Amino acid sequence: MRISSIEEFPRELVPVEIPPHTVMLRGIGWDSNVYLVKDGSEALIVDTGTGVNWHVYTEIWGREGYLNGVEKVTIFNTHEHFDHVGGNSVLKDWLEGKGIKVLFAAHEVTAKTLEKGDDYVILAYSYGRKFEPGKVDIHLKDGEILRIGSLELELIHTPGHTAGSSCLYLYDEVKLMFTGDTVFKGTVGRTDLPTGNGWKLQESLERLRDYDVDFGLPGHGWVIKDWRKNIDEILGWL
């Protein structure tokens, strides 16, 4: 599904603002959700979709002024799959064209896969596309902190959906968990794709349950509002 102009953008996919720092864009078609977190002159983009509809996301950011005053953007990929990383290179080009410095960040397992361009894991072929490998500037380990302006986000390695799957936890006045495809509202990411592991996913969920979270922000679908209840219900049938 490709949207050719902002006028075609579905009403339910308008930007969702989560004060004080975050904007959620619901993914179009096969795209992941795309998140923007801004603090002063720095911003974080969490996942980039397939790259098919990047122009819609950037048009919204521009129209709403979300990137006004931003000088540096870090693009973080929650895991290796193409529907979350396919827009990396085109967003980098667009941002640099605006004079904005761009860095890439990911858990070290995901970072190595993206730098290698390992399509066995990335699965670009299943979307009829090709992934363009590129340098990942920041290789994160479990528990390390990603700093965006004055904000500190904890990298939580949550293998299961893929070996490199990770979440970012923002402990702020509103506590957010960016979950990628580890956990959604009412369900989890599949584990039958390359490097997936159901037992590790269960362990990851049990670990995530202990975090104090106001809103879980998944890679697809809607916001998770009842964090522990949602995970408990999933663990009950997983």
From TrEMBL:
Q: Name one GO molecular function term.
A: hydrolase activity
Name the domain of life this protein comes from. Answer: Archaea
Q: Keywords on this record?
A: Hydrolase, Metal-binding, Zinc
- CC cofactor: Zn(2+)
Keyword Nuclease: yes or no?
no
Give a single Pfam family match: Lactamase_B
- Quote the InterPro entries the UniProt record gives: MBL_Glyoxalase_II, Metallo-B-lactamas, RibonucZ/Hydroxyglut_hydro
> CDD domains, per this entry?
metallo-hydrolase-like_MBL-fold
This protein's record includes keyword Cytoplasm: no
Record-annotated Metallo-beta-lactamase domain positions: 31-220
Q: What is this protein called?
A: Metallo-beta-lactamase domain-containing protein
